[in-house]
Amino acid sequence: MEITTEMIKELRAATGAGMLDCRKALQEANGDYQKAVDFLREKGMATAAKRADREASNGVVELYSHGSGRVGVMVEVNCETDFVARSEQFRNLAHEIALQIAAGAPRYVRESEIPQDVLDHEAEIARARAKEEGKPEAVAEKIVAGRLDKFKDEVVLLRQAYIRDENVKVEALIMQNIAAIGENVVVRRFQRWELGEKLGE
Hints:
This protein is an alpha+beta fold. It has helices at 5-15, 19-28, 33-51, 82-85, 88-104, 116-132, 137-155, 170-181; strands at 58-66, 71-79, 161-162, 165-169, 186-194. The protein has a three-stranded antiparallel beta sheet. It has a two-stranded antiparallel ribbon with strand order 3-4. The longest helix has 19 residues, at 33-51.
């Protein structure tokens, strides 16, 4: 199938990929637009993974207030250069992450930050529930593992489902942006406050 300039332009407008990459994707996909998009996304994810170990010390501290000041979020999102830190796409991503934190109320950025005693406590609760429900020991351990996974999906920002698209995890959203921006992007830390919440909780 002949790959036209129009097809390449359309794909470029939708994905932000370079002209040559768009041409190659369309050739690989035999002119199938959706397959070409998937090809570029997979390629982008692989490239993004390679960028993940690069130093990211520029960026922005995004502030967000929700519900007439009932919830406040401060999040530090880093990238590699000041140029990208000022770009609209990066700023939008930082804003989306702040919205996610306001709505999803995560407690940790990544899984490795969950203290072992918190995981042990959650496992204990799940085990007690399984026992209460009369589940056999072998099944109980699978239930505990499943409930721990669910707990991590709720409290870890990168594992949460993105508020605008339940099929996309926040980590995948960041990876897509790394692929499009061409720099490593890291959510360094965040703080979320809710009016009236008890201190120390």
